[in-house]
Amino acid sequence: MLTIKNLHASIEGTPILKGINLEVKPGEVHAIMGPNGSGKSTLASVLAGREEYEVTEGEVSFKGKNLLDLSPEDRAREGVFLAFQYPVEIPGVSSTNFLRTAVNQVREYRGLESLDAVKFLSIMKEKMKLVEIDQKLLSRSLNEGFSGGEKKRNEIFQMAMLEPTLSILDETDSGLDIDALRIVSNGVNQLKTSENATIVVTHYQRLLDYIVPDFVHVLYNGRIVKSGTKELALELEEKGYDWIKEEADAASV
Amino acid sequence: MSKDNQILEELTSKDYEHGWSVDMEVDEAATGLNEDIIKWISAKKEEPQWLLEWRLKAFKTWQEMKEPDWANVTYPKIDLQALKYYSAPKKSNKPKSLDEIDPELLQIYERLGISLNEQKKLQGIAVDAVLDSVSVGTTFKHTLSKLGIVFCSFSEAVKEHPELVKKYLGSVVPITDNYYAALNSAVFSDGSFCYIPAGVRCPMELSTYFRINAANTGQFERTLIVAEESSYVSYLEGCTAPQRDENQLHAAVVEIYAAKHAEVKYSTVQNWFPGDKNGKGGIYNFVTKRGICAGDYSKISWTQVETGSAVTWKYPSCILKGDHSIGEFYSVAVTNNYQQADTGTKMIHIGKNTKSRIVSKGISAGKSQNSYRGQVQVMKRATNARNFSQCDSLLMGDRCGAHTFPYIDIQNPTAKVEHEATTSKIGEDQLFYCNQRGIATEDAVALIVNGYAKEVLNQLPMEFAVEAQKLLALTLEGSVG
């Protein structure tokens, strides 16, 4: 579904990603871990099409299309979803109104008829249960005055509404208490099918207790320096990142 | 970046949607401004002697006045002698019903999206449409007259209700008020008149559409709204103007009088031609709008959505004379390209326990300049006066400007006056977030801007709010780059 080959990206001339290779197949969950500043969030942003990042080399294909050729909105319409680490606030625009605009633009792109208010609300009610989100919250301005947990739940709720094929969760666990973490993870797990895939970007292994990955990749200095299974995450939790850094630094000398 | 620039390029080169004019035979005054022209206009309109004298007095006053230059706007000096002060469609010969109105005229309105015929049937809105200088038709007159409500063109009011016109004309905005008000008083050609008798709640929104058609004609309309004791009316004003190279002056005067327990809601959606992307052409909108809450417990509420004009210079204001009276001002002013706006309000607290509320939302894009200028004045005997002002500015891009000029003058120590101001930018982050959810940039801008202006848009009657939302989106298309 997603093939990343030798991806290089920089911001304002500073290289951040220095040759990423990754293959994600339908039904898989990949975790991207790594120390601070290793390029995890950059990878998520580049895949979603953030303009500040310049792709200097490499290819990304998504469902057979060149992802890098697509505008951010077309990537989203093709099925790429990014759950933001810091969801933005949009004053005066209710979550409901925002999502209805989004869902209908995505549907239009996919050749589906737009949902009227009644249909939209009934689908919304269904999906709200997934992340135990309250309707009152959704009639408030998007993310304005939301707690950290509410923001993240709202991200997963949006994911449920947009039904992406590739979801990228960027540090979704940051700022969550244990209950919120459980609710959010539960939502993600319920949305998992054999057709879609998830990339979980995280610093800590605790999220992976809830969202169990098929593969774990360690990003360091703009490259994936180690890949493995769930056990790798546990090892990292126990030993920290230093031994990986040393290994990688030794290899690059 | 390049994609946004491309969108910007495409959309700023897009023509003004209402930019067309219809060749009609017109009956117009000779170019220039002098006593003879004023006499000619007055005679043309078969006006009574007192009105002619009032005009001439205004003209004398005006001649002694100087064009003001304190606003935060720049524009080439207007040659008032190069304008024509009266232009009327020739064929429009006092229509008695809509069926008698020149089809060509009606067609103009249909192109504007306001068909009188349709409006008559569909919306329950009474429309008094002003094309250049003559009011072409007033719908619903019959329904309204049963309630004793008068809603007609100004000229008609002069003929049919001279005592009312004489009593209230110039009572809120005197001829000596300011340069453009004096000019308007001397040369005004037509406008709307509205009278709500005591105890009557006007059952429908009253609406006027102004439109400037002829070249080089200043439009000087005069609106007078009188709400008697315990009455209520909601009044809508919408404006469009065809595209022209020369700037056209629009210097209107609106006066509102609210008696005891009366309430008047005045809403404007202004969409005059803003000039092209290089700042050429466009309307100068120099308007004096003022209401007086003359009676106790009366209320006047101004709501404006200003998207057009090359230069907008206006301050819809309230004089809170009656005790417990309330004044409100809700404004969204959008400027793009080279547009300039210096707008705001004045709240003059005279009576006891008077309250005012100001909510101003400025949006600047392109190379435009947007200023809020507001005055809150609490007079000596205005015990317990309250004011709340909120002035927000939204910037799009880094070549535009937003300015706030609040003036506060308190002469009574019991007054409570609050002023809040914020300035924000539409963030790349917000746009990217919307894009990431599948929303195109243009739609994202519309969504964010409408959210920002929501508090004001909510004040508009439903059908107007929808139009205003579309206008906001249209005005700002391509302004993110």
TrEMBL record, chain A:
Keywords: ATP-binding, Nucleotide-binding. SMART domains: AAA (SM00382). The keyword Transferase does not apply. InterPro entries: AAA+_ATPase, ABC_transporter-like_ATP-bd, FeS-cluster_ATPase_SufC, P-loop_NTPase. Residues 2-246 form the ABC transporter domain. Transmembrane segments: none annotated. PANTHER family: ABC TRANSPORTER I FAMILY MEMBER 6, CHLOROPLASTIC. Belongs to the ABC transporter superfamily. Ycf16 family. NCBIfam families: PRK09580.1 (NF007134), sufC (TIGR01978). This is Fe-S cluster assembly ATPase SufC.
From TrEMBL, chain B:
Residues 146-201 form the SUF system FeS cluster assembly SufBD N-terminal domain. Residues 210-451 form the SUF system FeS cluster assembly SufBD core domain. InterPro entries: Fe-S_cluster_assembly_SufBD, SUF_FeS_clus_asmbl_SufB, SUF_FeS_clus_asmbl_SufBD_core, SUF_FeS_clus_asmbl_SufBD_sf, SufBD_N. Belongs to the iron-sulfur cluster assembly SufBD family. This is Fe-S cluster assembly protein SufB. It comes from Belliella aquatica.
